[in-house]
Amino acid sequence: MNIQYIRNCYGCGLCAIACPKRIINIELNNEGFYEPNITDITDCLDCGLCCEVCAYTHKELSLQCRTPKSYAAWSNDSIIRSECSSGGIGFELGRTLIGKGYHVCGVRYNTELARAEHYIATTIDELRPSIGSKYIQSYTINGFSSINRKQKYLVTGTPCQIDSFRRYIRKFHMEDNFLLMDFFCHGVPSMLMWRKYITDVEKKIGKLTYVSWRNKRTGWHDSWAMAIESEFNKKMPIGGNNDVLKYKREHFFYSRLSQGDNFYRLFLSDACLGKACYTDCKYKDLQSSADIRIGDLWGKTYSQNEEGVSAVLTFTSKGDELLKWCNCTLVEHPLEIVTEGQMKTCPQRGYIYNKAMAVLMDENATINDVASAIKLPLKLNNLMNILKHPSKLYSYIVNRMKKI
Ligand SMILES: Cc1cc2nc3c(=O)[nH]c(=O)nc-3n(C[C@H](O)[C@H](O)[C@H](O)COP(=O)(O)OP(=O)(O)OC[C@H]3O[C@@H](n4cnc5c(N)ncnc54)[C@H](O)[C@@H]3O)c2cc1C
């Protein structure tokens, strides 16, 4: 038994890490998602380890969900809070654990390879590139394969990556050395889309040297914004003893969803997520195999907050204890408040997906071509949704009236 017939899975890479013969490669498939490939099947020992650690092939999660504790949280360090995607809890958990001798396996963006990837941070300085969400699927192999079984780690990732990861550390009796953190996950978009997007940006500003997906310049609620630095943008030393922001980010190229950014239009409209995100995501809402889950606390309670508030769920006492050691403010709230606004079910894959994928797979098409191809179907879809839900119809009319 092996993963040779597994296609369109989570692409978490744990099968490759577990394989004793190292014959599994993780590569992008033709739709732009990571997938395992066995290089030489004649070398397979038929040990079944690749399937054993694979969350995609198991119905049950590796951690059975008990009712979690739920919090609003934010870093007490205002600079960290301003740089992170929501309240900066991801960074604060890492910083606290590094202080306790742990290493952190998080995600950074590699501008040379134009991909997000897991890596190991052993110092606070090394942890900095993990700040902020990279809204693309991460390549896990370098990070996961550098894990030393005798060391303690915080491992962060999408819920599906973390579910497989728990299976892996349980299989090799290492669970005590690990603390696992995932996030409420919308899904991951195709790398074909990301590549077309950056090709378009690079035409305008030259080779990218830094990318931040979330930028709070005009507040947290309007933080669906790319802030991009390129070889032509100057870096301005900020001076003083500010050790977090090494440079003033004054010369960034900014592109916001509210002004029609193509990456966010395609990502947030669910036009080109991984097939597994539509049909096999078992991790919405409270379903998690992590010790801690983080996300944006988008609900009414913090609707006036513009600095960023993290939603935090702790599923284990280990996770809850760690949270209390961090340099952050914690407010316990009922689950309905903390999870308000989160997706409760998987998105639908239909006509818009087929249309977007067909254009994405055309090598000559640009990101504008993809966005144009789905513009009308998306409008129709939104209209249908509004008509199906009277409450949405009411707020739609109110919003239109305000604009007149
Ligand atoms: C693909 C994706 C989809 C998401 N969907 C939702 C959602 O639907 N609802 C919601 O509330 N939040 C979602 N988030 C999480 C959200 O964007 C913030 O990461 C979260 O609010 C934590 O913010 P923070 O300020 O504490 O994060 P930070 O302190 O900035 O930490 C971010 C953490 O996320 C990890 N990370 C970053 N990019 C990736 C990646 N591509 N793959 C794996 N790990 C990564 C980093 O290693 C770091 O630990 C999503 C994140 C990603 C990457």
Explain how this protein is built.
With 404 residues, the protein is of the alpha/beta class. The chain has three domains: 3-52, 2-Layer Sandwich (Alpha-Beta Plaits), CATH 3.30.70; 62-350, no CATH class; 351-403, no CATH class. It has 15 helices and 16 strands. It has helices at 14-18, 49-52, 78-83, 89-99, 124-127, 141-145, 159-171, 191-205, 262-268, 275-279, 317-325, 335-338, 351-360, 367-388, 390-403; strands spanning 24-28, 34-38, 69-75, 103-110, 115-121, 138-139, 153-156, 178-183, 208-214, 224-230, 236-237, 247-248, 253-256, 292-296, 310-314, 328-332. The chain has a nine-stranded mixed β-sheet, sandwiched between helices. A three-stranded antiparallel β-sheet has the order 9-10-13. Helix 9 (262-268) crosses helix 14 and helix 13 (351-360) runs antiparallel to helix 14 (367-388). The N and C termini lie far apart (63 Å). Bound molecules: flavin-adenine dinucleotide. Flavin-adenine dinucleotide binds next to helix 4, strand 4 and strand 14.
